[in-house]
Amino acid sequence: LGLFTGIGLSEAKARETLRNGALSALLRRAVLQARSALGPALDKATGTLLYNTAARLKDPKHLGFLVGYIARKEILTDLQLSAALEYVRSHPLEPLDVADFERACGVGVCITPEQIEEAVEAVISKHRAELLAERYHFNMGLLMGEARNQLRWADGKTIKNEVDLQVLHLLGPKTEADLEKKPKVAKARLAPAEKQKVAVVENGDMGAETQSLLEQLRGEALKFHKPGENYKTEGYVVTPNTMALLKQHLAITGGQVRTRFPPEPNGILHIGHAKAINFNFGYAKANGGLCFLRYDDTNPEKEEEKYFTAIREMVEWLGYQPYAVTHASDYFDQLYTWALELIHRGQAYVCHQKVEEIKGHNPPPSPWRDRPVEESLLLFEDMRKGKFGEGEATLRMKLVMEDGKMDPVAYRVKFTPHHRTGDKWCIYPTYDYTHCLCDSIEHITHSLCTKEFQARRSSYFWLCNALDVYCPVQWEYGRLNLLYTVVSKRKIIQLVETGAVRDWDDPRLFTLTALRRRGFPPEAINNFCARVGVTVAQATMEPHLLEACAREVLNEQAPRAMAVLEPLKVTITNFPAPKALEVLVPNFPADESRGFHKVPFHQTVYIEETDFREEADKGYKRLAPGQPVGLRHTGYIITVQNVIKDVSGRVIELEVTCTKSDVAEKPKAFIHWVSVPLACEVRLYERLFLHKNPEDPSEVPGGFLSDLNPDSLRVVHNALVDSSVHSARPFDKFQFERLGYFSVDPDSEQGKMVFNRTVTLKEDPGKA
Q1: Is 479 an annotated catalytic residue?
Q2: Among 95, 99, 46, which residue's Cα sits nearest to residue 75?
Q3: Domain Glutamyl/glutaminyl-tRNA synthetase class Ib anti-codon binding spans what residues (predicted)?
């Protein structure tokens, strides 16, 4: 404590430093080294430089080197120290070029007061006219910045004092007008089409606005390393071969950003994958790079062709085109060669422990860890030839991972034909072995993955370096989860097998195929991912936020039509024409320039049962005896003359008269209707589960299958829709006036269309 307060730290700051073992150890070394050169009394400026060195230095091996410059008074300012820290970070290999280092840090550079005076004079002369016009409202920081650019190593305070002095000499003392606050200039407002409303995740909700996804991913926004500067990433391991490998890498990629989206082809993509797709493809696109779609097809037992097809289809549906479609299996030969090399280098061995023995975080060490290299080579060859049964032998790598897991498996035996390589292999590489090496082969610059893979980062770096191959950088981000759903493959399979849902694309699920079938536009999903943001923390969102994104897009994309879910027949007894009239309906009422469609208007129309009451309660504005309503788009108002009921007393038909709206009193409401309609089936969806977290035993003790919402699907078999939609194809979208947004389902047949309700027109307040 005395050592740290002796260099100028407050007692509170010194105690806080002592709580950080690594920092306090470095600072102690730095102070003792400086004392040995300067004596026991260190001035506060030197103490501050020593503290900042210990706190900001990424690689402690350079501590003594930097402290030497501080002790010799060759690094005197924080500006010089920042340049020194950046230099050692950018030059990870020993020995450092001392002359180049000193040039980069301004060592020995002496800036005279005369030089500062001349530089400030030149800058003020350049801006003299604006200074005289704006006086003290001028941005003085601009003058300081330009002078500083000319004299990089000059003391900032000295430059500021000189600027203040020369400005005072030019303008004289401040007047009352100079002391008044400068009025704020109103920012130009963006046109609605230019706006991109994006939000920040705050505890599962979204703030007002932030940047578009591409803005979030562009350039320096994420503090990612530049291609070829992998070694600047904290935790990246530098070997004697690193810089040469990075040079080769840059020669191959031309400095271009390269990412990859690497799904396992053993299931359908879900909403969480949409974030991964947007992040990987979006980061490459935002920075002028390219992105691979690489199937991680290393487990032939679970892979099916339908998953390969569906994954690519969904990537392209979201609007992205892979630079290349590759497979881990493309590289099986190379991966096998590298496995032999790893054994040769004493970094891998054949083990006979059973799977259950090595599960968990504290398994017993393998008794075969130190077996001779030649023996492991022979046994690995036997594994390849099928001489071991499944589970009898594995190839393991000699390392300990962040989570304490020891010696992860690199290869295991599986007597399952591979969909691409057939029976060529009976040993298959694991994710831990395959992933980083495939990234290396494809010269990926940024290996982006979700946070749970952070524990594998050390094995990622270790394996590339153990084989002396190019090592990309793994960056982790937070997963995207939704409430009121499950996305695990195993649980979706259970839902399908128990009949709770029809298949992977059941519109109540949040797989991407299900969202497409329900009618969610890809733009809405991409906008949702942008609003969630590229966060390190896991984001758990409410479904209504995704629905809000869908409404925004569909309001612009889905043409209007009219449909009636619970039809009530209405006969117009004084219909003004002997046959049906044609009514022009705008496709988008807010923008009639986008066209119209025609619908027939006949003596017989159908309205919603709920749009009629025999008695009009207070506040009820729709059709009732004595209370007329307008029929949307027709120019007519109808008035009830007769109510026809069946034997049970249920209203089955209304007889009405019509009057042109320009001669009648304006009604309280206008309702939608259909005439000469098409019969259709409409499927109305609600949440599949009753609780927010159906997988949480504390919330749902009986398990997720006990939490199913019995009202998650209501099928309206005898709905009617206007004939303007007769040529619609699967996935075409419409806004049914007053009802919501709907999409044509692939189950549609000639003569019987099927529509899925995507979302209602407005958010249900009970769901928010």
Answers
A1: yes
A2: 46
A3: 558-658
